[in-house]
Amino acid sequence: MLRRLDLRGFKSFASPISLDFGPGVNVIVGPNGSGKSNLAEAIVWSMGEQRANKLRAAGMTEMVFSGGDGRPAAGVAEVRMTVSPAIDDPGLPTEIEVARRVTRTGEATYQLNGTSCRLLDVHESLGTFGLGPDALAVIRQGQVEAVCTARPADLRAVVEEAA
Amino acid sequence: MLRRLDLRGFKSFASPISLDFGPGVNVIVGPNGSGKSNLAEAIVWSMGEQRANKLRAAGMTEMVFSGGDGRPAAGVAEVRMTVSPAIDDPGLPTEIEVARRVTRTGEATYQLNGTSCRLLDVHESLGTFGLGPDALAVIRQGQVEAVCTARPADLRAVVEEAA
Amino acid sequence: VTDGFQQIFTVVQERFTDAIEVLFPGGAGRLVAVEPEDEDGEMGIEISVVPAGKRARPLAMMSGGERSLIALAFCLAIAMTRPAPFYLLDEVEAALDDTNLRRFLTLVRRLSKETQFVMITHQQPTVEIADTLFGVTMGSDGASQIVSRRLGDSIEGVARTTVRRQ
Amino acid sequence: VTDGFQQIFTVVQERFTDAIEVLFPGGAGRLVAVEPEDEDGEMGIEISVVPAGKRARPLAMMSGGERSLIALAFCLAIAMTRPAPFYLLDEVEAALDDTNLRRFLTLVRRLSKETQFVMITHQQPTVEIADTLFGVTMGSDGASQIVSRRLGDSIEGVARTTVRRQ
Ligand SMILES: Nc1ncnc2c1ncn2[C@@H]1O[C@H](COP(=O)(O)OP(=O)(O)OP(=O)(O)O)[C@@H](O)[C@H]1O
Ligand SMILES: Nc1ncnc2c1ncn2[C@@H]1O[C@H](COP(=O)(O)OP(=O)(O)OP(=O)(O)O)[C@@H](O)[C@H]1O
Ligand SMILES: [Mg+2]
Ligand SMILES: [Mg+2]
Q: Are D132 and D148 a contacting pair, CB within 8 Å?
C-alpha cells in the first residue's frame, strides 16, 4: 500500500504538502494544469526513475519548483514516500520509507528509512515489494494503450516480473 | 462544407449508409467500437490518404468489411464524399464529388463528379478547396497534442498551407 | 510568396493570442517566428503560452489538458484566419476538464456560424452545441448502423449509454 | 523459473478471460503463448479479443476505447493474480464511453477490497467509487495546493468545475 507522500519544492508543489492515502480507492481530481500528474511523477521519481524524459523534463534539476507569479523558485525538490507490501509477509519489512532530493544545482541525495543511501539501495529495497518506476502497476497519462502496442516478448516480461 | 458522405462495405459499415451533414456543428456519438472513427477514416480515405498506417491498417484491402457474426465479408469498399468550398468563389466549382473504391483483391478505382479518374486528379481537385488527407483541419483520435510536438518548421508549413 | 505568408501569419498570431485569452483566462500566448536551427534551414514558428500565475515553460512540461488547449488554439487561430471547408475533430476534448471544455466549445460555437465542424465525442457538453447529431451503433452482426440524424429525443437511446453526463 | 512462470501465466490467462467477459459482454478474450520470431528469441504472450458479434482482428484495427479496455483487462488480470502494493492510474479511462467506464469501475471496486488504487481522473463515476478523495488546485502564485482529503461536500468546490458530470 502507498501510505504517505510528502513533497516540497517538487514541480508545482512549492509548499510542503502531505497526502495520507487510505485503503481501497484513492481518487485525485482537479483542473487541468493543477498538479495531479505532477503528484504521479513525484511517486515515480521517489521510486528512482532516472529517465528525465519519463518526467516531461530534460534533466533532474527541472524537478525543482521554478517559481510563479510573485513566488520565487525553490532551491530544493524533495519527495518522501512511505509504502507497505501488498500482502503481510514475515520475510519483508512492514514499511519502507524512501526519500529523494535534488537541488537546483543538481546535487542528488537518497534516503532509506531516514538513513542516507545510494539510488541502487532504493531500487533494491522497493524491488522486494515489487515496486519500481517501470512496473505495469503505474499507468501514466496518455499511456493506457501501451499494452496493445507491446511486443509479445515485452508482455511476457511483464508477467515474469509479477512471478 | 462537407455536404454528404455515402459508404458501403467500408470497414464496419457493411450496409450502404448515407450521412447528410448540415452547417455549423455536426456531432457524432456512439459506444466504443461502434464505428465513429471509421467514419472519420472514410472521409480521410476518400480524400486520397495513401498511408495504410494512418488508417489503422497494413494495406488498403483492409478497408473492406471483413464480416461479422452471421454476416459474410463484403467484396468491395466504396466511399463517396460531396464537398463545397469554405467560401463562395466564382473561380471554384460549387461542389465536388469524389468517390473511391477498393475490392477485396486490391483493385482500386477513383471518380471525380461521377467520371473515372486517377488518384492524382482527386488530390488536385480537392486541393483547390484546401482539402487533403494531411490538413490541420482533420485531428484524428489521439492526435490532438501533435501541434505541441511539431518542430517550428512544421508549424510554419501548416500556416503556409493555409496561405 | 513570403509576403503572402507574412500577411496570413500576422493575422494568425493575433487570433492565437485571442484564443489563448479565452482558453487560459489571465494567461497569455503568442506565436513567434524563429531562426532556423541549421544553416540552410527554414524559418519556423514557435508556440509560447504562459497560463495565469505561472512562468514561461517548455510545452513539454505542461499538462495534457494544457497541451490539448494550446494545440486547439492553434488550429482555431488558422480557422479564424483562412477557414478550411470543414473541421473534422475526433475526440479532441478527451483531456479537458469541464470548465476548459466549455471554454473550447464557446470558441467552436462562435466559429461555427461561418465554418462547419464535424466532431466525434463522448462528452455531453459537446452534444449540447450540436446543430445536427448522428448516433452510431454496432449491430449484433458486426455491422455499424447510423440510428439518427436529428436533434431531440430520438438520439436519447444512443447518447444515454455512451455520452458521459454525470 | 519457467515453471513458476507457467503457474502464474495460467492464472493470469484465466483472470484475463474473466475480465474480458465483464468489459466485453458477449465477447471473448484470451492470452496466447507464442513462438519467438527469431531463432534465439523469447517466447511471448499475444492478446486476442473478439468483441460481441465481431470477428477476430488485429489489435491495431480496434477502437481507442476497445484498446483501452483490453490494456486495462491485462493490467487487472495481473492485479488479480499477484497484486502490486498499489496501482497508480493517471486518466486511464479517457477514451471509455459511460457504459464501459462503469464496467471498468466495477472491476476496480471489486479488486479494491484487497488492493489499493490511486486514480487521477476528470470523470464523475470514478469519483463516486472513491474511498478517499483529494482535490488539487493551482494557486495564483503558480503553486499547487491540496484542498481536501475527505469525502463529502468539502470536495464539491473543486469537483464542480473540473469533473465532467453532464
Ligand atoms: N518545475 C516546475 N516548477 C513549477 N511549475 C511546474 C514545474 N514543472 C511543471 N510545472 C507546472 O505544472 C503544470 C502541470 O501540472 P500537471 O501535469 O500535474 O497537471 P494536471 O493536473 O495533471 O493536468 P491535466 O488534467 O491537464 O492532466 C504545468 O502547468 C507546469 O507549468
Ligand atoms: N474491415 C473491417 N471490417 C469489419 N469491421 C471492422 C473493419 N475494420 C475495423 N472494424 C471494426 O471497427 C471497430 C472500430 O470502430 P471505430 O474505431 O470506428 O470505433 P469508435 O466508434 O471510434 O470507438 P471509440 O469510441 O472507442 O473510439 C473495431 O471493433 C473493428 O472490429
Ligand atoms: Mg495530468
Ligand atoms: Mg474512435
A: no
- With bands split at pLDDT 50, 70 and 90, how would you rate the model's confidence at C154? very low
Q: Are B102 and B76 in contact (CB under 8 A)?
A: yes
Chains that touch C (3 or more CB pairs under 8 A): A, B, D
Interchain proximity D95–C99, CB inside 8 Å: no
Residue C63 grid coordinates:
499538462
Task: Give the 3-state DSSP-derived string for chain A, with helices as H, strands as E and coil as C.
Answer: CEEEEEEECECCECCCEEEECCCCEEEEECCCCCCHHHHHHHHHHHCCCCCHHHHCCCCHHHHECCCECCECCCCEEEEEEEECCCCCCCCCCCCEEEEEEEECCCCEEEEECCEEECHHHHHHHHHCCCCCCCCCCEECCCCCCHHHHCCHHHHHHHHHHHC
Nine-digit cell string for B163: 496561405
Closest CA to C127 of C98, C86, C159: C159
Q: What is the pLDDT of residues B99-114, one digit of tens each?
A: 999 999 999 999 999 9
Residue A43 · residue A81 · CB < 8 Å:
yes
Of all residues in chain B, what percent carry a pLDDT higher than 90?
A: 93
State how far the Cα of C37 lies from the Cα of C42, in Å rounded to an integer.
Answer: 8
> Of D4, D113, D120, which has the smallest distance from its Cβ to A28's Cβ?
D120
Joined together, the cell numbers standing for residue C124 give 455531453
pLDDT, tens only, D96-111: 999 999 999 999 999 9
**Residue D133: Cβ-neighbour burial (10 angstroms; 0-12, 13-18, 19+):** buried
Dihedral in degrees, nearest 10, Cα atoms B112, B116, B122, B125: -50
Per-residue model confidence as pLDDT tens digits over C20-59: 999 999 999 999 999 887 777 788 999 999 999 999 999 9
User: Residue A163: what pLDDT?
Assistant: 77
Secondary structure class of D121 (helix, strand, coil)? coil
Q: By alpha-carbon position, which residue is closest to atom 9 of ligand 1?
A: A11
**Nearest-ligand number for the alpha carbon of B34:** 2
Low-confidence ranges of chain A (pLDDT < 50): none
Other Cβ atoms less than 10 A from the Cβ of A27: the count is: 25
Partner residue facing D53 (CB), from C52, C124, C142: C142
- The answer to whether the CB of C118 falls within 8 A of the CB of C84 is no
| Mean per-residue pLDDT of chain B | 96
d(CA D76, CA C25): 40
* Inter-chain residue contact A66 with C64, CB threshold 8 Å: no
Residue B18 three-state SS: strand
Supply the residue whose CA is at minimum distance from atom 25 of ligand 2.
B32
Are the CB atoms for B68 and C143 separated by under 8 Å? yes
Q: How far apart are CA A12 and CA A118, in angstroms?
A: 26
| pLDDT for C133 beyond 70 | yes
Q: How many CB atoms neighbour CB A156 within 10 A?
A: 22
Residue D166 in this model has a pLDDT that exceeds 90: no
- Whole-angstrom Cα distance, residue D145 to residue C35? 39
CB of C54 closer than 6 A to ligand 1?
Answer: yes
Q: What is the pLDDT of residues D128-161, one digit of tens each?
A: 999 999 999 999 999 999 986 666 444 455 555 5
Chain C residue numbers with beta carbons less than 8 Å from the beta carbon of A34 are: 63
What percent of chain D is predicted at pLDDT more than 90? 80
Strands A25-29 and D116-120: parallel
